[in-house]
Specification:
Elements lengths: L7 H4 L2 H5 L17 H29 L9 H27 L4 H5 L14 H10 L9 H4 L9 H12 L3 H10 L26 H12 L8 H10 L8 H5 L7 H12 L4 H35 L11 H10 L4 H4 L16 H7 L3
Helix pairs in contact: 3-4, 3-6, 3-9, 4-14, 6-8, 9-13, 11-13, 14-15
């Protein structure tokens, strides 16, 4: 081969990768634990895929930071493609847990104490993924764990990285702004809105949502009538006289009422050409949350199998921490929760021509 040609081994820097597995149990004076090599490679593979996920998310953020995202250009398509790639990686990571589960609890116990106080909790890249997607420190289960910079916690520089990421323009903030800019609900487009539904309460100061609210109320069964209070608060920040303000605050955490109106409108009329990609982006973000939740549950199940109720190697509560995180660490539940406010497609109001002109490619 000529000196200037690229060789596969060198291009991938395989010397660095393949020589980076050093099981502690294989060091002199220790009893070699065969499964420690699997444990190391699995987690190194996780970290490589975490790096790719961050690479994709940061590229998406750069697009969303533009003043406008035109659904009739490549921007929205690129965003969708890269979110789907992130989701495909997460699906792979969920499957990878099965490989780790070929190790038995006794196999793990043979080298577990050699890991203390290192812990998967200290994966900075995974925490950066969560933070980049929009998970804030105050939303994390056992927030105190994340503030530790002693043994079992983060090094100070890593803790700083997580905080810097949280304080930046995270994906949830940018998606919120993107949804708020959606032009199809601008009031001037609805001045000639006609509907067969002539009687409705003028609650929202928007003709479409007043009509839609009436359709939604009429579609609720006797056990669901209180959902109209949730509808009013989540989408319009209107509190009923009977509602509990503290309980209502728990219903919406990330997205503004204006953004959620846009997301619901996109979902309802997703079959119009100009809304299809936007709907798929919303759906893909919900899927991201779902796949991360699945990963946490898979991890929880694995840890319960491996160590039962023992503490984690990083001095967390082990399975108890993972269970709390699995139940609490949702980022796009506001978007997922919009399915609460859907109505049958056949009952949707017909859109006025002024709006249709913007929704159909010319």
């Amino acid at each position: 081969m000529s000196n200037g040609s690229i060789y596969y081994h060198n291009y991938l820097e395989l010397d660095k990768i393949l020589e980076s597995q050093h099981p502690i149990s294989f060091e002199p004076g220790n009893e070699p634990a065969h499964d420690e090599m699997l444990f190391i490679i699995i987690h190194q593979a996780y970290e490589l895929w975490f790096k790719q996920i961050l690479f994709e998310l940061n590229s998406i953020i750069k697009i969303y930071e533009k003043e406008t995202i035109n659904d009739n250009t490549e921007d929205a398509g690129i965003i969708l493609q890269r979110i789907k790639r992130v989701n495909s990686i997460l699906q792979l990571l969920n499957q990878q847990v099965r490989i780790l589960n070929t190790m038995t609890p006794l196999d793990f116990l043979s080298f577990r104490n050699l890991l203390v106080p290192a812990s998967g909790f200290q994966s900075v890249q995974f925490r950066l993924i969560e933070a980049t997607l929009g998970l804030k420190m105050q939303q994390r289960y056992r927030e105190d764990y994340y503030k530790r910079t002693n043994e079992g916690g983060f090094m100070q520089r890593d803790y700083h990285k997580i905080n810097v990421t949280e304080e930046a323009s995270t994906l949830d903030i940018l998606v919120n702004k993107w949804l708020e800019r959606m032009p199809f609900l601008e009031i001037e487009l609805w001045q000639h809105f006609q509907s067969r539904h002539t009687q409705y309460e003028n609650i929202t100061n928007h003709p479409f949502w007043n009509v839609y609210r009436n359709i939604y109320v009429n579609g609720l069964n006797d056990y669901e009538k209180n959902k109209i209070d949730d509808f009013d608060y989540i989408l319009f920040n209107i509190q009923s006289l009977n509602s509990n303000p503290e309980q209502l605050k728990l219903l919406r955490q990330q997205f503004s009422p204006q953004a959620l109106q846009a997301a619901l409108f996109i979902t309802l009329y997703r079959n119009y050409p100009l809304l299809q990609t936007s709907y798929q982006i919303i759906d893909a973000l919900i899927e991201t949350d779902h796949l991360l939740s699945t990963w946490r549950h898979e991890h929880l199940t694995m840890v319960r199998r491996m160590i039962g109720m023992r503490v984690g190697t990083g001095n967390t509560s082990g399975a108890g921490y993972l269970e709390g995180a699995a139940q609490q660490h949702f980022i796009y539940k506001d978007l997922a929760g919009l399915s609460t406010f859907l109505v049958e497609s056949k009952k949707l109001p017909a859109l006025p021509n002024e709006v249709l002109q913007h929704l159909i490619f010319k």
